[in-house]
Amino acid sequence: MGNTNCEEIKQQAEQELISVSDKQALEALRVKYLGRKGLLAQLMSVIPSLPVEERAAFGQAANVLKNELAELFDQKQKDMVSGAHKGNQAAVDISMPGIACDIGNLHPITQVIDEICNVFSRMGFSIEDGPEIETEFNNFTGLNIPLDHPSRDAFDTFYLKPNAGSNEKLLLRSHTSPAQVRLMKSRKPALSVVVPGRVYRPDAVDASHSFMFHQVEGLVVDKHITLAHLKGALEEFAKAVFGKHITMRFRPHFFPFTEPSVEVDISCIICQGKGCSVCGKKKWLEILGAGMVHPNVFKHVGYNHKIYSGFAFGMGVERIAMLKYGIDDIRLFFENDLRFLKQF
């Protein structure tokens, strides 16, 4: 009996709510059903007159009805606020201006890496990858870096715990050059590759240093490769990235893994070679290091240096980007400030 009455009252309320269109009518209907003298209160007032064994079930049914009615009125009120009771078409004002969506774009470092790789790809280089966790051999020994070289010091390299059961030292690669060793050990000449990637060094963070940054490594190995091939490839790269108006120079330098070794400068793109604060009045900007692959490197990977020769180069992507866009603080690349990133 109680359940029958509850269901009838619920259906009656649902029907009457359909025709309600304003707050006053909704409140009047709420009082009719849920008020102190409403239908629900009248229903519950008969509980004391029922047989004892029926009271509990009747009271439980009445409470369920109370909750259901409250949900119906709350939902009706939400519909009136959102305009849904007027139908979907009325709830959408198609004359209102739209909301512009933010469109993401590539990080400037990614853009510069892509630009560098595209330049070398047009010259026939393939784009390769290498792991960021390297062995000590690939990062140092295979590249002819002696045991007493300062870069092997724990203050200059992030060393990691070796794998269980292995004595091989592991580290976060401090440059992308270990990819040279991996590629030459796994392939036969001829090779012409570039390897972009992240590298790690325990440097204190300031305007020109970061403990993580990006490099692009280049390697060419074949018969009769000379320094002239290196100069031609790097000149093509520099003019493609910085403009055909620049001039270049190659300065003698020393790297353990190349012989002879050079550092490559371009004329200052800020002052056009007149001298400014960016180039330190020197009129030149260093952009990368390079050289002919050292015979000892070929020996470590099993190449015959009497048959094959090659050149290698490495550049810091952040430095290239800072020079290209006139940025004076490397930290701006990693702070995720949209005001900075949206400029690219």
Task: Write a structural description.
There is one protein chain. This protein has 344 residues and is of the alpha+beta class. It has helices at residues 2-18, 23-34, 39-45, 52-82, 88-91, 108-122, 136-139, 178-186, 227-242, 295-301, 317-325, 338-341; strands spanning 126-127, 133-135, 159-160, 170-172, 191-200, 212-222, 248-255, 258-267, 284-293, 309-316. Strands 1-5-6-10-9-8-7 form a 7-stranded mixed sheet, with helices on both faces. It has a 3-stranded antiparallel sheet with strand order 2-4-3. α1 packs parallel to α4 (52-82) and α2 packs antiparallel against α4 (52-82). 28% of the residues are buried.
Class by SSE composition: alpha+beta
Specify the helix fraction band.
25-40%
Q: What is the terminal-to-terminal distance?
A: 74 Å
Poorly predicted parts: none
Mean pLDDT: 90
Counted beta strands: 10
Lateral strand order in the biggest sheet: 1-5-6-10-9-8-7
User: How many helical stretches?
Assistant: 12
The helix-strand sequence is HHHHHHEEHEEHEEHEEEHEHH
- Give the overall shape: elongated
Strand content: 15-25%
CA-atom Rg in angstroms: 37 Å
* Major sheet characteristics: 7 strands, mixed
How is the secondary structure organized here?
Blueprint (H helix, E strand, L loop, with lengths): L1 H17 L4 H12 L4 H7 L6 H31 L5 H4 L16 H15 L3 E2 L5 E3 H4 L19 E2 L9 E3 L5 H9 L4 E10 L11 E11 L4 H16 L5 E8 L2 E10 L16 E10 L1 H7 L7 E8 H9 L12 H4 L3
Parallel strand pairs: 1-5
Antiparallel strand pairs: 2-4, 3-4, 5-6, 6-10, 7-8, 8-9, 9-10
Helix pairs in contact: 1-4, 2-4, 6-9, 6-11, 8-10
